[in-house]
Structure formats: C-alpha cells, structure tokens
Backbone:
C-alpha cells in the first residue's frame, strides 16, 4: 500500500532515505517533467529498454526531490561536478545520488552529506578472477577466494556496489581508485579503509539493500553512524506514491553474511 509520504522534515541529519523504484515499460505522463536536455538524451538512447530505464530514473528523481523540497518536479535544475555527478542547483542542503541497473532504480538522499548509491543486476563475468584482482584490495580478494565458486560472483558484486557507491559519493566514480575502498563481506557493512582524501573509514557509514535475488545494491554516506531507511517509490497517475520507510538493520543470522535486513519488528507489514 503506497501512501503520500514523506514530508521534507522527515529526513533528519545523520539519516539517509533510500527510495527503490521499478522501471516502467510504458512511458508515463510524468515525462513532461524532464528538461529539454534530458528528453534529448533519452531519445538518443539506442533501445526502448534503455529509454525506459532512463526515463523512470528521471521521473523518480524529480518526483522524490520535489516532495522533499516542496517544489514543482519540472522546475528542478541540476548542475554537474567535474566527473558528471549531478547535484541540485541552489543551496537546498539536500544531497542525492541515483543508480539504475536492469529494472531496478535506487535513489539515496541525505542532508548536507555526500551520498552515493549503486545497484547492479548480476551478470555473467567471464574474467572474474582478473577483474577481482584488479578491483579488490588483497584482504578482499582473499575473502572472495574462500567462497565456493557458486558464491564468488555474488560476493564480487557485493564488493563492487560498495566501491561504486563510495566512488559516486565522492563524485569521481570509478576514477576514485577502487582498491583503496576496503570492506569485508562478514559482519555489518562498514568501511575498513577509504582513499586518504575522503577522511577516515569511521567518517563514513555503509548499507547494503535487501533487494531480490539477482541484484546487489549499496549506499554510503559521509556521516559516522548514520541511520538508513528504505522504501519503494512508484510512479502513479499524477505523481509518485511512497511506501512507508523502513529502518535497515543487521540482524544476527544475516550479520554472518553481512546482508541487510529490514527491521520487521518495527514494520511487520513487510
Ligand atoms: C558515472 C558512473 C559512476 C556511472 O556508474 P554506473 O554504474 O554505470 O551507473 P549508475 O546507474 O550507478 O549511475 C548513473 C547515475 O549516477 C549519476 N552520476 C553520473 N556521474 C556521476 C559521478 N561522477 N558521480 C556520482 N554520480 C554520478 C547520474 O545520476 C547517473 O544517472 P543518469 O545516467 O540517469 O544521468 C561511472 O560511469 C563512473 O565512475 N565513471 C567515471 C567518471 C567518468 O569517467 N565520468 C565521465 C564524465 S567526465
């Protein structure tokens, strides 16, 4: 059941709101929210699937941000960092990052703190070992080596989305130097090391999202001990519908695997 949440006041400092969307195959009327540049970019994309993914991402981005800012979705303007990271024009204090893969969209929001999100649909990786050696820190590679061959690709994607999320929070993406973004798949997600110019690992918080089989996703924010909330946003006629946000926590059995779990005690409806 989607409700008309949230209000802008809901996003506290030291909190991250994560909105998950599903790619709509039919182009919604909200496409009129896109700027001329966004529409032109969408039309240049080669396949209907790529256009649908881009459009849904933009509609969710504009629809969600407009709700937090109390503004018309079509009125929002963006500027771009040196490596292309979009941010809101003007001093709103609201930071965001968008990611899309397959039919999943992930949008993370934070107050005055750099935030990064990455979602990846699992796919066959032909040269997994070479890729892992190039992208993972030695301790991460050793951890991956201890997994069964069936678990290795999944493990790699879990490392990968964390690193991409940190790269995206920094604005530099994969240029950041992925081997220096170090975590462990065991225990609650947290950074063991980050590139020196991003401060210390303790300055950052990290979450994995409990998506369905076939997807990995992570969000990270430059805030110590941040609280993460997660919910679905859906395009509806005339706007965006919001599910109630649920707290992400790490329960004991999942903790062993390092997986995020939704706080089902607080939100029994899930
Ligand atoms: C940009 C990059 C992070 C995208 O990662 P990806 O896994 O392919 O795609 P995702 O779906 O996770 O993220 C794409 C979204 O991230 C945002 N984004 C774009 N550039 C970004 C950046 N440098 N940092 C953070 N977020 C960025 C945009 O909202 C983009 O959405 P859009 O394609 O609908 O505009 C990745 O390609 C990268 O690291 N590139 C290196 C930087 C670079 O070479 N940029 C080229 C321009 S100088």
Residues:
């Amino acid at each position: 059941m989607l409700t008309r949440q949230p209000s802008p006041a809901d996003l506290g400092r030291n909190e991250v709101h994560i909105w998950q969307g599903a790619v709509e195959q039919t182009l919604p009327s909200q496409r009129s929210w896109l700027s001329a540049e966004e529409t032109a970019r969408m039309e240049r994309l080669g396949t209907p699937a790529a256009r649908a993914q881009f459009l849904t991402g933009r509609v969710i981005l504009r629809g969600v941000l407009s709700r937090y800012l109390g503004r018309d979705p079509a009125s929002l303007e963006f500027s771009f960092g040196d490596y292309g990271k979009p941010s809101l024009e003007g001093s709103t204090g609201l930071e965001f990052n968008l990611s899309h893969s397959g039919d999943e969209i992930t949008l993370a929001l934070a107050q005055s703190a750099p935030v990064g999100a990455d979602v990846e649909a699992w796919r066959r990786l032909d040269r997994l070992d070479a890729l892992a050696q190039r992208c993972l820190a030695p301790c991460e590679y050793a951890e991956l080596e201890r997994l069964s061959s069936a678990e290795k690709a999944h493990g790699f994607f879990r490392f990968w989305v964390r690193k991409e999320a940190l790269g995206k929070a920094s604005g530099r993406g994969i240029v950041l130097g992925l081997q220096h973004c170090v975590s462990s798949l065991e225990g609650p997600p947290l950074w063991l090391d980050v590139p020196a110019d991003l401060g210390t690992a303790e300055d950052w918080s990290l979450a994995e999202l409990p998506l369905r089989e076939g997807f990995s996703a992570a969000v990270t924010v430059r805030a110590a001990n941040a609280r993460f909330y997660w919910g679905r946003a859906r395009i509806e006629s005339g706007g965006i519908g919001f599910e109630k946000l649920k707290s992400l926590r790490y329960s004991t059995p999942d903790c062993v695997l390092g997986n995020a779990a939704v706080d089902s005690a607080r939100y029994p409806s899930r």
About this structure: The longest strand covers residues 227-236. Residues 54, 57, 83-86, 97-100, 118, 164, 167-168, 171, 173-175 surround coenzyme A (CB under 6 Å). The domain at 8-262 is CATH 3.90.470.20 (Ribosomal Protein L22; Chain A). The chain has six helices and 14 strands.
